[in-house]
Amino acid sequence: MASINVTMDRAELLELIAGNREEALKHLAEKILDQFLLAESAEQLNAESYERSDERTDYRNGARQRTLATRIGGLNLMVPRHRNAPFHTMLFENYTRSETAFINAMAEMVINGVSTRKVSKVIETLCGTTISKSAVSEVCKKLDPEIEAFRNQPLDGKEYPFVMVDATYFKVREDHKIISKAFMLAIGFSPEGKREVIGFNVYDNEATSTWIDFFLSLKNRGLSGVLMVTSDAHPAILRALTRVLPGVPWQRCQFHFTRNILDATPKKCQAGLAVELREVFNQKTINEARTRMYELVNDYQDIAPNAMDILQNGFEDAMTVMNLPDTVWVHVRTSNVIERVNQELKRRSEVIKIFPNAQSLLRLMGAVVIEYNDALSMKRNVFFKRTPATLNAELQEHLKEIAYAQKSLADAA
Length: 413
Fold this sequence. Notes:
Elements (H helix, E strand, L loop, with lengths): L9 H9 L2 H25 L14 E11 L2 E10 L7 H22 L4 H12 L5 H8 L3 H8 L10 E13 L2 E13 L5 E9 L4 H13 L7 E4 L3 H10 L5 E3 L1 H10 L3 H15 L4 H15 L4 H14 L10 H4 L3 H14 L4 E2 L2 H20 L15 H20 L1
Helix pairs in contact: 3-5, 4-5, 6-15, 7-8, 8-16, 9-10, 9-12, 10-11, 11-12, 14-15
């Protein structure tokens, strides 16, 4: 390595010390690093400036200014240029690696719910350099390849006997207006009980057409072996399910079902009815559950007639799960797993309030979903052995009969 010499006369040094100390430090750093770059240049050329040498490999061709962001602010350095071969420097190679880590840190801050305005302030405090909100947004676009790779990864080769789907809404700017967009999400359960995020996307609404598109995207990527789908009672979900996955029965989320019933119940009776509904759902057999349900209807018919109509009309759909082995009931009878993801999405989006466009919604909330999926992969399996494998052909045929009966009712509605 060539030697590095930094010279300063006494007057220059006194002037620096007397002035702004931060600026003095920057000035000294610039002089040292400029000399470092010149030494690297001499080493690559095998010759000092104006030196005649048979070992010279190239010639100098001036210099260009380049700014290096550091904790003491931006340093304006003079980077040598060579006539034939490009000049290489460890300084900016290290800077590039640091910049990549820096970019990842900024993106991580936004994903974790820090506003772009706050991110820019943090960067200015740490590095002495300003970065605009739009620049932070541009950094976040570097997440796109990872998001798309996750969304489009093939599902063939795996089976997901149980699938949960749901949608939550976020505000987005579009055509100079603020509108709500649906963020659709699907979680699959492997035969061993491992939970995985298997798909997500952004749509204008929860129409039958958009849910069909979402289910088709899962099917086209190889989704197979589905025995039951759990969701709330949005009618578009059931219509789309019967078209894309015919023969797969629907489990109405018991948590949402309970909430629907209680919303139609006088307030003074809600607490007591909630306890009795749990008793219905916790019966050992479907016949015992039906008997208990009819007793409940008789008890509350005069007090909460609308609630009892909801209970009777939705009971069978909410008890589809009881046709399966009891080891899976508690895990797939509600969509609580996906509701927890939705709560985290809402929490992370709180500082953003309104997304600038649909792509930014997909990018940032998609990153949160992938992070949640990583957390799910570390949790224990919720089934023992291969529970779905215990389903014999007769039981699988019975599940198809339930699915076709649900389709007939949906078509008639």
